[in-house]
Structure formats: structure tokens, C-alpha cells
């Protein structure tokens, strides 16, 4: 999640390299999209980092632009999903108590301290991906679940994304996706700086792991495909999710809805589930608000985060419905992300707050993937 102190950046924003969009990537340049209706522009790697530091949202389309262009215009909504009111309380409610702050604390403590950083081009960034994959495989194995598949999705950078699939009764049905990003960054020193990323986005990552654990142990088998995605390379332009969402669009896959969990552990001054209302699907977001009312104890508020603020935007860009529940009002969120201070011991960090997003995610998974 790109939330940092604001810096004056007018010069950088107007410093697009004078290279036609159609030209192949030039060494040291990245093709960035700065708005949904804007043509992408070339920026240097240094300029891209300044965008992160200034909280300027963008999507790095260097590797997806040509692929997306060949697919033609994006339909307003590729998946014509119907979102009825929550109706699977009998399946969801008994499992809510199985979600655990102690399990989440144990996982997040290990995840946020085992790696110096989880930078997408660093060796430890790749090792963090392997940690997620081995952790989920162990959960599936311990639960005797041979129907849970864990796949490393490779990119053109060293870090892989992870896709976890629960086998469905109807394998051809619309896919329900819960997602987060597994990389981290220290904006002062991206490659070698300490970046524990406990909230950004260790919190969302561990939310997903705990939901997977509860579903696996309960024996839950979805009627339609259910997937959990852990994206690499989010911090530098939604690289992993952009690659995957474009691949799903290219393959003609039908997605019922995507729920992005990115930063869920800092309640701000007034605890709530803050539903992002820009660059999302309004119908799916309204459904998520109903889920929050049904399965969480927190009130629902609204906030805006701007273009390209997290991985849900990759799905929106490709025409799929996405929603993004956030930890607090966007301007009242965790002030220490992208620094060495983003730890579980940071002032305000709350596993109890984080648990409410696990409840929401569990409800989303079951309600959308059940018959």
C-alpha cells in the first residue's frame, strides 16, 4: 500500500521520458500509468521510486501493456456477477470463532522478522514467497486436504506470487478471489533497507493464511472455484497482480469478485472497516458492506485512496469486479509503513482489529463460493 508523507513532486510528474509508448522497454525506463483514462508514460526507476515516496498512485504496465493492448478494450465488467444479501450464516458463523489472534500473531511475528525485507528483486523477497507456499502447503497437508493446490506464479523478477486454489464442485464456475501482497519496501533504501512490513502487507497476508487454515481444517469445499492470491511486486506498481489479472483476462476466465486485503491492523482514531470507493466495483463493495454488518463488529465507513493504490486496481483495470476494505480512513492510516518501524510493536498496531478483517474475508469466501 502506497501511503507515505507527501512531497512536492511537480517536476517528476512532468518528467516523462521522451520515448513513444509503442517502443519496447529501454534499459532503466519503466512504462507507468498514472490514471485510469491516461496513456502510460515512460519514467526512470528513480522517478518511479519518487512516486512511491510522494504517495502518487500508479500502475507499472511495462510488461503488460502490449499484452493488454492485443486483447482490445476492456468491458466495463467482464463478470456479470449477482450479489444477493448474505445467506450462508449457518456455514460462516460456526467458523468465526476458529479465527485466532494468537495464530495470526505467531504467523506475523515469524513473517515480519524472518526476512530483512521482502523487496521484489531481493533474494529474501523470493524466500518470503517460498515461506508462504510452504506454510500453506503444511496447512493443507496437516488437514489432509489433497484438493488444495498451491502454485508459484513466476514473473520477470525474482519474487513469485502465490495462488492457492480450493477445488470446486463446479470447476467451470465463476472464481472468487481473496488477495493481498506479500512484498515490502523501505522507501529510503528499497533494496537493502530493513522493511518488516508487518502492517503493509503482512497483516493482509496473515489474514489470508488464517482464513485458509480455518477453511482447510473445517473441510469446507466450495461449490465454485475459490482462490487466494499473494502478490509479489505490489509496492513498485502492482507488478504481480497486474501480470496475473492480465493473464486471467487473456485466458477468458470469469471472476465473481476480488477482495483485496492490504493493511488491516491499524484502526486509526476511530475503528472501522473503511471501504474504498474509487477504482472498485460499486455492487461488490455494497455486498462487502453487508458482509461487514453481518460478520464483523466494526462499523463501515467510506474512503478514497486514488489510482493504483493497491492490487484491486489491477483487476479493475482488466474489467473484473473488485473491492477493497481498508484498516481506517485513508488519511488516518498507519504512518510508519515503508519504514523499519512497520512492526507488530508499533503504536496502534492491533491484532484484534486485524481479526475483524479475517471475519470479513471468511464471510466473503463462503458466501460467494457456496451454492
Automatic annotation (TrEMBL):
Domain Peptidase M28 positions: 170-346
Cofactor: Zn(2+)
Segment forming the signal sequence: 1-18
InterPro entries in UniProt: EF_Hand_1_Ca_BS (IPR018247), M28_fam (IPR045175), Peptidase_M28 (IPR007484)
PROSITE patterns: EF_HAND_1
The enzyme's E.C. designation: 3.4.-.-
Keyword line: Aminopeptidase, Hydrolase, Metal-binding, Protease, Signal, Zinc
GO molecular function: aminopeptidase activity; metal ion binding; metalloexopeptidase activity
Enzyme class: hydrolase
A GO biological process held by the record: proteolysis
SUPFAM superfamilies in alphabetical order: Zn-dependent exopeptidases
PANTHER family reported in the protein's UniProt record: AMINOPEPTIDASE YDR415C-RELATED, METALLOPEPTIDASE M28 FAMILY MEMBER
Annotated family: Belongs to the peptidase M28 family. M28E subfamily.
Protein name, entry field: Peptide hydrolase
Species of origin: Pterulicium gracile
Amino acid at each position: 500500500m502506497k501511503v507515505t508523507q507527501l512531497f512536492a513532486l511537480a517536476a517528476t510528474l512532468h518528467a516523462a521520458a521522451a520515448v513513444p509508448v509503442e517502443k519496447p522497454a529501454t534499459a532503466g525506463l519503466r512504462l507507468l500509468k498514472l490514471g485510469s483514462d491516461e496513456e502510460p508514460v515512460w519514467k526512470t526507476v528513480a522517478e518511479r521510486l519518487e512516486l512511491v515516496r510522494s504517495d502518487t498512485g500508479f500502475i507499472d504496465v511495462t510488461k503488460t501493456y502490449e499484452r493488454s493492448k492485443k486483447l482490445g478494450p476492456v468491458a466495463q465488467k467482464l463478470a456479470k456477477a449477482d450479489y444477493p444479501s448474505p445467506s450462508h450464516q449457518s456455514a460462516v458463523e460456526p467458523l468465526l470463532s476458529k479465527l485466532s489472534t494468537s495464530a495470526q500473531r505467531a504467523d506475523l511475528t515469524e513473517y515480519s522478522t524472518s526476512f530483512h525485507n521482502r523487496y521484489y528483486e531481493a533474494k529474501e523477497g523470493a524466500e518470503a514467497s517460498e515461506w508462504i507456499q510452504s506454510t500453506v502447503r503444511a496447512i493443507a497437508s496437516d488437514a489432509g486436504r489433497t484438493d488444495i493446490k498451491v502454485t508459484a506464479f513466476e514473473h520477470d523478477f525474482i519474487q513469485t506470487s502465490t495462488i492457492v486454489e480450493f477445488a470446486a464442485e463446479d470447476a467451470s464456475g465463476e472464481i472468487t478471489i481473496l488477495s493481498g501482497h506479500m512484498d515490502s519496501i523501505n522507501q529510503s533504501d528499497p533494496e537493502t533497507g530493513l522493511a518488516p512490513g508487518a502492517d503493509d502487507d503482512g497483516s493482509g497476508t496473515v489474514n489470508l493464511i488464517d482464513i485458509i487454515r480455518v477453511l482447510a481444517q473445517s473441510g469446507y469445499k466450495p461449490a465454485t472455484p475459490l482462490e487466494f492470491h499473494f502478490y509479489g511486486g505490489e509496492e513498485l506498481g502492482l507488478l504481480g497482480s497486474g501480470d496475473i489479472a492480465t493473464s486471467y483476462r487473456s485466458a477468458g476466465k470469469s471472476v465473481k469478485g476480488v477482495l483485496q486485503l492490504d493493511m488491516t491492523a491499524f484502526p486509526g482514531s476511530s475503528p472501522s472497516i473503511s471501504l474504498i470507493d474509487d477504482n472498485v466495483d460499486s455492487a461488490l463493495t455494497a455486498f462487502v458492506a453487508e458482509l461487514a454488518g453481518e460478520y464483523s463488529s466494526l462499523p463501515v465507513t467510506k474512503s478514497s485512496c486514488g489510482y493504483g493504490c493497491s492490487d484491486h486496481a489491477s483487476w479493475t483495470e482488466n474489467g473484473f469486479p473488485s473491492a477493497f476494505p481498508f484498516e481506517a480512513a485513508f488519511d488516518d492510516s498507519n504512518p510508519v509503513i515503508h519504514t523499519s518501524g512497520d512492526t507488530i510493536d508499533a503504536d496502534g498496531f492491533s491484532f484484534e482489529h486485524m481479526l475483524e478483517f479475517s471475519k470479513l474475508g471468511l464471510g466473503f469466501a463462503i458466501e460467494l463460493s457456496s451454492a
